[in-house]
Amino acid sequence: MSATFIESTHGNIHLCYLGYRYYGKRKSQNRSKYWICVKCNATATSFADLSVVVRDEHTHLPDGTDKEVLEMRKNLKRKIIEESGPIDRIVEEAYHAIHAQPQSR
């Protein structure tokens, strides 16, 4: 499975791999990047070819919805910034839109 990247609500790039999400710690000269899990201290290294090596065991189970929740939060933040309506209404509309979608399980 290859790595995917997503922008956080703070504008940082996160690595999503096998149901875990990592934040970037540092880059090396050989274009690899060192990552740390957002929920524990597990580490990973990504390479230019999108391969990933996980270095440590996670202390939690993978969360397949984590990436989707981050996308929803990012979209909600963007909508609140762009629209001039009350924040309560925007959040309420987003909540109803999420619960109106069919559950995929």
From TrEMBL:
FLYWCH-type domain sequence ranges: 5-60
Record bears the keyword Zinc-finger: yes
Keywords, comma-separated and alphabetical: Metal-binding, Zinc, Zinc-finger
Superkingdom of the source species: Eukaryota
Keyword Zinc: yes
Entry-linked InterPro entries: Znf_FLYWCH
GO molecular function, one term: zinc ion binding
Protein name, as recorded: FLYWCH-type domain-containing protein
Originating species: Rotaria magnacalcarata
